[in-house]
Amino acid sequence: MNLTKIESRPTRRNSWEYNFFIDFYGHQKDETIQNVLSNLKENTIFLRTLGSYPMSSQSL
Q1: With contact defined as beta carbons under 8 Å apart, do 12 and 19 qualify?
Q2: Which of 32, 35, 3, 33 is nearest to 20 (CA)?
Q3: Where are the bilayer-spanning segments (predicted)?
């Protein structure tokens, strides 16, 4: 899995508690990505997918 971006933001609930936002190459229907997301669900308190989009075949 290739990560393209990692951001952290403090939660509004507790001091020193953060949410992490990650962007990566891959689609949630890919078997490799499904395995990674399944592993994350087992090892995190909270996980939400905000979007999964196909990559354009054209370069800008």
Answers
A1: no
A2: 3
A3: none
d(CA 46, CA 38): 12
Rg of the chain over CA atoms, in angstroms?
14
Q: Could you give the maximum distance between any two Cα atoms of the chain, in Å?
A: 44
Q: Are 47 and 41 in contact (CB under 8 A)?
A: yes
Check if the beta carbon of residue 33 is closer than 8 Å to that of residue 27: yes
At 1-60, the pLDDT tens digits run: 889 999 999 999 888 999 999 999 999 999 999 999 999 999 999 999 999 988 778 877
